[in-house]
Amino acid sequence: MAQAQATTGGRVYARALAEAVDAEGGKALLQDVGGVLAALCRAWQANRTLRSYFLATEVSSATKRTTMGTLTAGRFPKVLSNFLKLLLERGRLDLLPEIGAAYELILDERLGRIPVTITTAVPVPESDFRAWTEAIRSTVGALAVVDHVVKPEILAGAIIRVGDRVIDGSARRRLAELQNRIIQRGVQHHALQS
Questions:
Q1: pTM of the full structure
Q2: Which of 4, 37, 97, 152 is 20–30 Å from 43 (CA)?
C-alpha cells in the first residue's frame, strides 16, 4: 500500500476496525478486510472524482449513504461496509488513507509479518528483487513482506528498512558524510591556522 502516515485519528479508527473484524471472523477475515481496504485506499488516492463526491458538502448525506451502500453491497465484507458507513456519518472519510496505513501495521503485527522496504534510485530487475527478497527472508524470517520503492534522489545504492530499523547504503548519505568530514577538516585546519 502506498504508505500514508497514520494520524492519531487514523490509528484509533484502524484499531476499532481491527477489533470488530477480529471478533467477527478472526485472522482470515482480518486478511480479507486488509486486502479490500488496501485496494479501496489505492482507489481513493488515485480517483479524485471518488474523493470529491464523498467529501463534497453539496451532496446530501442521504445520497452519499445510498451510493456507499450500492458500492459496497456484496463486494465488501459486511463489517468493512458498516465501518465505511460509520466513517461517512461521522464525516471522517478523509482519514481513509491513514486508517488503511494503520490497519496494515496492525495486520502485520497480528500476523507476525515483518515489513521490509528496499529503496533504490532506479528500478531493479525482477530477478534481482526476487534474490534480495529471498536473502532478506532467510535473514529476518519467512514472514518478511518486501516492498520496492524507487526514489531517484538517493542517487545510487539502496536503503533497506526492516520494521523500524534502517540500513542506509545510499550514495546521497555517503556524499553527505564526505561533505561533513571535509567541513570538519576545514574547521580544524582553520582553527590550527588561527
A1: 0.68
A2: 152
